[in-house]
TrEMBL record:
Residues 107-141 form a coiled coil. It comes from Marinobacter nauticus. This is Protein CR006 P-loop domain-containing protein. The keyword Cytoplasm does not apply. Keywords: Coiled coil. Transmembrane segments: none annotated.
């Protein structure tokens, strides 16, 4: 990877709000020049931040965006995860690595003679690089998925808050409904929320929405009176008995055949007896004693007694018609019970109509018997059990609606809370199904487990790499190469480094024995620092062709001869750098 440009620098020293407008992208070689204080060293500080995977300690509130040619821009927010291979030589580098009064940090250079170990190290590093990329990429995907799940929780909680809050604006639980409550509810109702089918249909949602409303109503009184099936069974037996009954009399055939004439004659006979006359009030002729006796034989005492029974049965049957009971008003019920109550009332009305039609059929036959008591061929059907059951069932349904209403009135908060919880579960499950929440949660868990296993493998390989590097690396080789380069650079060999195992660093010696203890010219210090930097580019077998090199201007303190050496030295060692 190479750096394309610096898109943004904000609150970074002299660069308070720099943007990359109309500036060309970097090339392979780039020269920054300008007056003192124009920001050259400050720019090197940006590159140093990327090298150290950290933000600037000098400018803690600074922001930067550095574009690279193959990947996402590097910013102060993600610099800790940057794997850009960059080395920066500036005053910060010198201060971090060299103490002129003490020691210089050691340089670990790889022993070129251990070929098999080097090849294994190369293989492990390639595997490590590949796995690190896989781990980082997968970690980013997992984070994106977790972010989507988190956003889903926030959005779903907002949707549910709107739906449930509209039912009862006084319920603080739903007024403050948030992602935390939503996720807790899903966890508490895990199995129900995994259902593939909607929990509630539209009608049930309407019923529960009504049931959750905070409007409490008074209890309702209803007196239920069902029909005993035995009532009509026994009544039929008595009616059939009456219809089959006749009386012994000297019948007059014409009066049997014509009921209306029979009634007229019977009434007329009674009138003539009451007024003590034998003259026919209709034709004026005399009614003979023989005719009177014929009529009296037809209408004897048994006949009259039976007729009285028939008339009594007629009166009883008239009282058996079903009268609609006094029913509560529909508006007295809670909304969720109104529909069921109304349906029960309609069923009751139909059952009453059906029963009364059957009673009317009985009554019609009885009227025929009354008109002609001597007729014995009349029959009736039984009142159907289904009609009686329909009547009783409708009354029971009405009573059940009343009981539900009264139960809610007596347990109002408990019942409304129950309705709200059912709605909450329905809405939550609907959101979960739409998003595929449980599948995504499982996916996150599975991918995290795999990535943890990959991280374990990476860590184990990292230990193996460090072990190999330790066996291949040698501080003495680092010192030898440094000394060789420094002597060529200065043109003399009086200054050198020697590794001190106790101090775990290099001591600067003059003439191989005398510690300088800071007694160095500025030119010597700069030479040591610069050669140290160039030597350190090869540390841990780092490849210069994969490295971005940034050199700030401490070498400008050299005289012209050393400047030439510095340029030549840098070109020889860094020409292949990115």
């Amino acid at each position: 990877m190479s750096i394309k440009n610096i898109q943004k620098l904000k609150k970074f020293g002299i660069f308070q709000n720099h943007t990359n407008a109309n500036v060309k992208d970097f090339g392979k070689y780039n020269l920054f020049y300008g007056w003192n204080g124009s920001g050259k060293s400050t720019l090197s500080g940006v590159f140093r931040c990327i090298e150290n995977n950290t933000t600037s300690s000098k400018f803690p509130s600074s922001e930067f965006t550095v574009s690279i040619d193959n990947g996402a821009p590097i910013t102060q927010a993600n610099v800790a995860g940057s794997d850009l291979n960059i080395y920066t030589f500036n005053h910060e580098f010198i201060d971090e690595n060299i103490s002129w009064d003490s020691v210089v940090k050691s340089i670990l250079l790889v022993d070129k003679e251990k070929i098999e170990e080097r090849e294994k190290l190369e293989k492990l590093k390639k595997e490590q690089e590949s796995d690190n990329k896989k781990y980082t990429s997968e970690d980013e995907e997992i984070r994106r998925l977790e972010s989507a799940i988190s956003k889903f929780g926030t959005d779903s909680a907002r949707h549910m808050k709107t739906s449930l809050q509209s039912i009862d604006t006084t319920d603080r639980y739903y007024l403050n409904y948030d992602k935390r409550k939503f996720e807790a509810f899903i966890n508490d109702n895990l199995e129900a929320s995994k259902s593939d089918e909607p929990l509630l249909d539209d009608q049930k949602i309407i019923e529960l929405t009504n049931a959750a409303k905070p409007d409490q109503k008074s209890p309702i009184t209803f007196n239920q009176k069902v029909i005993n099936k035995e009532t009509f069974t026994k009544a039929k037996e008595r009616l059939v008995d009456l219809l089959k009954t006749s009386v012994v009399s000297q019948t007059i055939q014409r009066l049997i055949e014509y009921g209306d004439i029979k009634s007229w004659v019977e009434i007329g006979l009674d009138l003539h007896k009451r007024h003590d006359t034998n003259q026919c009030e209709f034709c004026g002729n005399t009614i003979t004693d023989e005719r009177i006796k014929q009529l009296e034989a037809h209408f004897n005492d048994d006949y009259k007694a039976f007729q009285t029974r028939l008339e009594s049965a007629d009166g009883w049957l008239s009282g058996q018609y079903i009268q609609p009971p006094a029913l509560p008003a529909t508006n007295d019920f809670y909304d969720e019970f109104k529909n069921g109550y109304s349906q029960a009332c309609k069923a009751l009305e139909k059952a009453i109509t059906d029963l009364n039609e059957e009673i009317t059929a009985w009554h019609t036959v009885l009227k025929e018997k009354i008109a002609n008591p001597l007729e014995t061929g009349l029959t009736v059907e039984a009142i159907s059990e289904s009609s009686v059951e329909a009547f009783n069932d409708s009354l029971n349904a009405i009573s059940a609606a009343v009981d539900k209403h009264n139960h809610k009135s007596g347990n109002f908060k408990e019942e409304t809370d129950k309705a709200k919880k059912q709605l909450e579960l329905h809405y939550a499950t609907t959101e979960v199904q739409s998003f595929g929440y449980h599948d995504k949660k499982k996916e996150v868990g599975d991918r995290k487990a795999k990535n943890r296993a990959l991280k374990t493998s990476i860590n184990a390989r990292d230990t193996e790499i460090r072990t190999l590097e330790d066996s291949l690396s040698n501080e003495g080789i680092g010192a030898d190469q440094f000394n060789e380069s420094l002597h060529k650079f200065l043109g003399r060999s009086e200054l050198s480094l020697r590794f001190n195992p106790t101090k775990k660093g290099y001591e600067i010696l003059r003439n191989d024995s005398e510690q300088v203890d800071g007694n160095l010219s500025e030119g010597e210090k700069t030479a040591i620092a610069f050669v140290y930097f160039i030597t350190k580019l090869k540390e841990n077998d780092n490849k210069i062709e994969d490295t971005i090199v940034v050199v700030d201007d401490p070498i400008s303190s050299f005289d012209s001869n050393h400047l030439f050496h510095a340029y030549s030295f840098m070109k020889i060692n860094c020409e292949k750098a990115k």
